[in-house]
């Protein structure tokens, strides 16, 4: 039974990583922007859940209100960042790292000023408290919910990219910006929408994280490194790769942690990813592009 | 013309960004490391404390920014309260206190730098503050080489005493050992240890292991999570399958929130397997969510609910100053008490000079909110009543068990046979 509960722990950790990394797969993967403020967009989503809890009194519904609202708040922050700073440095990924890191620090301080330094708590709705018992195995409802949410986000994003005109435009711009421009697609607008989507996903991840821990100004920093690890290991810009990498890293962390300790497991996962990138620098799934550049 | 990354540049981008990220995360780790300071510029010769006027300077050194600000701001607030009260009461030896505030920024090295500044350029008579053991260890050589005084208000792992530091929080024999005695009395025969991965929990667990061995308690598991760790599913799985009589929790900070949420979600509660924590105080309970910790145990020397006229006055004054929703906690009380203890010492010595205060310290008493405390001149700790409390659904901690009288401080655990060879 230990193996089974660890399997679930790994799956659950994987789904958390996936939620955190999915938005990055868009902004980092598809657009080449190293957005260090991605974690702070998650924080913004988490604080949105906190604010919504204060406004919507019924604890049962506040989570459902917070999810779309978190998406919008994260998305708008992303849009603002893109419109003011990021769009000036699309060809300079390392500059985006520094700029967005600065933005991340500013956002943390803003959160501290607005919500105070102490962490705040978002109470989970009653329909998510406790665990589902399956054959002696207790699966916490919050974990199942996050798993479901991650699946829903992946499906929605895949459908959007594959089956809508907007998705086609995004993929076109990513694959060959100039050719896309010359066929009448506005790459400026597409960039903005892509950034809105990626940052919005961070907002959703933030709302989900309130089910697991407390909400504080530094919430994002604990996830940002793991999220980048997932995107890089998965193969930049590949949703498929991001999914596989998130689940593998989650599983690895859970099983290493079970047989060793939490600190050792973190190191082992990092070593494994670095070793893997030596063999396959392009990540799990490599990008196929028709780009002429 | 803007180029989009193709697979080769993408790989290079990936490796570069990973490298940059690991540097950033390593830089963050660096903050946790104990770094003994060697302050070249500091001279031990003569103190520059100016007591000629009608005021005297004291320094408050707390983290007002960074990861520890959450906790240390509360200590700073209660120090300010004590200073205001003392000034309204006529000051110390007739002199008004002039507060110099410095921000330790949650960095041990900054604590050492700011302590040097407070002592050598602000010329304060004493410094109050510090929280993490790393910050204390970094400041210790500064206070010793400048022969100045630090009042440190937080429970810690013991095994230390310096003539230049007064410890007004609990040492292990006033918190952890009585908590273990309580658990043993309740019939606990197996324990699971969960802690953050740094100096305090590891030292505490060394002591707990020694105690357990001598008292026939089986340690069925010992797990550490990095500071800031937020995914406790594996650790909770291990706790659950070990099925101990109780869990001894030395986690610090945010990790407690994630741990208790996971604990509750996994279907565990205080009835199945009680968790006794030594680092969760009143202000953290709101952050964890009362429903996730109700009925769980804590060990401290003070709770907001302690019944004494001194505590009623302290709680009322604090809430009047900072708001009715602000709870008081053990480190806040210890900090508040430390300023009054310093006043008692100075007035007994009739001098602000460090040597005179050290000389006068032994036997100084003060009726603190936690009860009457006495300073031990040998090890500079104070006697404290030990409490085990249960978290109520009002979000406050209610005393469940109390030691019969204040316990004498014994930082090196010399009075315990089982603790031989621990230091």
Automatic annotation (TrEMBL), chain A:
CDD domains reported for this sequence: TM_PBP1_LivH_like (cd06582)
Intracellular or extracellular location(s): Cell membrane
Residue intervals passing through the bilayer: 49-81, 144-161, 193-215, 227-249, 261-279
Gene Ontology biological-process annotations: amino acid transport
Keyword flag Transport: yes
Topology versus the membrane: Multi-pass membrane protein
Alphabetical UniProt keywords: Amino-acid transport, Cell membrane, Membrane, Transmembrane, Transmembrane helix, Transport
PANTHER family, per database record: ABC TRANSPORTER PERMEASE PROTEIN, BRANCHED-CHAIN AMINO ACID TRANSPORT SYSTEM PERMEASE PROTEIN LIVH
UniProt similarity note: Belongs to the binding-protein-dependent transport system permease family. LivHM subfamily.
Protein name from the UniProt record: High-affinity branched-chain amino acid transport system permease protein LivH
Taxonomic source organism: Isoptericola dokdonensis DS-3
Automatic annotation (TrEMBL), chain B:
Domain of life: Bacteria
Region forming the signal peptide: 1-27
CDD domains listed in its UniProt record: PBP1_FmdD-like (cd06355)
GO-annotated biological processes: amino acid transport
One of the Pfam families matching this protein, by short name: Peripla_BP_5
InterPro entries: ABC_urea-bd_UrtA, Leu_Ile_Val-bd, Peripla_BP_I
Keyword annotations of the record: Signal
Name of the protein in its database record: Aliphatic amidase expression-regulating protein
Organism from which the protein derives: Isoptericola dokdonensis DS-3
């Amino acid at each position: 039974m230990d193996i089974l509960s660890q399997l679930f722990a790994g799956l659950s950790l994987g789904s958390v990583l996936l939620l955190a990394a999915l938005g990055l797969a868009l902004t980092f993967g598809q657009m080449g922007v190293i957005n260090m403020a991605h974690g702070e967009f998650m924080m913004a989503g988490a604080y949105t859940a906190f604010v919504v809890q204060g406004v919507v009194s019924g604890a049962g519904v506040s989570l459902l209100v917070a999810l779309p609202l978190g998406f919008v708040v994260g998305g708008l922050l992303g849009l603002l960042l893109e419109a003011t700073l990021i769009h000036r440095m699309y060809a300079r990924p390392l500059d985006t790292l520094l700029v967005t890191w600065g933005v991340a620090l500013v956002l943390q301080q803003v959160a501290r000023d607005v919500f105070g330094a102490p962490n705040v708590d978002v109470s989970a709705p009653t329909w998510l408290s406790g665990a589902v018992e399956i054959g002696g195995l207790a699966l916490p409802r919050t974990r199942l919910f996050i798993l479901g949410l991650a699946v829903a986000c992946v499906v929605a994003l895949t459908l959007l990219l594959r089956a809508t005109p907007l998705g086609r435009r995004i993929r076109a711009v990513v694959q060959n910006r100039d050719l896309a421009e010359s066929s009448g697609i506005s790459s400026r607008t597409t960039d903005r929408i892509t950034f809105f989507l990626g940052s919005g996903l961070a907002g959703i991840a933030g709302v989900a994280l309130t089910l697991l821990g407390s909400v504080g100004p530094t919430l994002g920093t604990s996830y940002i490194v793991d999220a980048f690890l997932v995107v890089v290991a998965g193969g930049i810009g590949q949703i498929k790769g991001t999914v596989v990498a998130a689940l593998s890293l989650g599983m690895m962390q859970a099983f290493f942690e079970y047989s060793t300790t939490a600190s050792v497991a973190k190191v082992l996962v990092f070593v494994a990813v670095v070793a893997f990138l030596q063999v396959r620098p392009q990540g799990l799934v490599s990008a196929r592009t028709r780009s002429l550049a | 013309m803007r180029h989009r990354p193709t697979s080769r540049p993408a790989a290079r981008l990936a490796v570069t960004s990973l490298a940059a990220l690991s540097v950033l995360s390593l830089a963050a780790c660096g903050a946790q490391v104990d770094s003994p300071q060697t302050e070249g510029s500091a001279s031990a010769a003569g103190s520059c404390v100016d007591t000629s006027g009608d005021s005297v300077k004291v320094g408050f050194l707390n983290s007002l920014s960074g990861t520890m600000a959450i906790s240390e701001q509360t200590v700073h607030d209660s120090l300010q309260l004590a200073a205001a009260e003392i000034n309204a009461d006529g000051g110390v030896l007739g002199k008004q206190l002039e507060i110099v505030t410095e921000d330790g920024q949650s960095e041990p090295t900054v604590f050492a730098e700011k302590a040097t500044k407070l002592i050598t350029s602000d010329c304060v008579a004493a410094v109050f503050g510090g929280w993490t053991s790393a910050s204390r260890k970094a400041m210790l050589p500064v206070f010793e080489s400048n022969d100045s005084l630090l009042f440190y208000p937080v429970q810690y792992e013991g095994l230390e005493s310096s003539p230049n530091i007064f410890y007004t929080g609990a040492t292990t024999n006033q918190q952890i050992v009585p908590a273990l005695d309580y658990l043993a009395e309740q019939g606990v025969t197996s324990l699971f240890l969960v802690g953050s991965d740094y100096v305090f929990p590891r030292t505490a667990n060394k002591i707990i292991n020694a105690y357990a061995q001598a008292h026939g308690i089986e340690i069925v598991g010992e797990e550490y999570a990095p500071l800031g760790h937020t995914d406790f599913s594996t650790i909770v799985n291990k706790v659950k399958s070990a099925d101990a009589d109780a869990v001894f929790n030395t986690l610090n900070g945010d990790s407690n929130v994630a741990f208790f949420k996971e604990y509750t979600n996994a279907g565990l509660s205080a009835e199945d397997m009680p968790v006794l924590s030594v680092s969760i105080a009143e202000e953290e309970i709101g952050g964890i969510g009362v429903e996730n910790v109700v009925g769980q145990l804590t060990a401290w020397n003070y709770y907001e609910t302690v019944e004494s006229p001194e505590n009623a006055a302290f709680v009322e004054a604090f809430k009047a100053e900072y708001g009715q929703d602000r709870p008081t906690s053990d480190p806040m009380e210890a900090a508040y008490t430390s300023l009054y203890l310093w006043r008692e010492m100075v007035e007994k010595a009739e001098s602000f000079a460090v040597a005179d205060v050290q000389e006068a310290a032994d036997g100084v008493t003060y009726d603190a909110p936690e009860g009457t405390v006495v300073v031990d001149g040998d090890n500079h700790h104070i006697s404290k009543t030990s409490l085990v409390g249960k978290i109520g659904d009002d979000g406050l901690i209610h005393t469940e068990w109390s030691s019969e009288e204040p316990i004498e401080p014994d930082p090196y655990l010399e009075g315990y046979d089982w603790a031989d060879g621990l230091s």
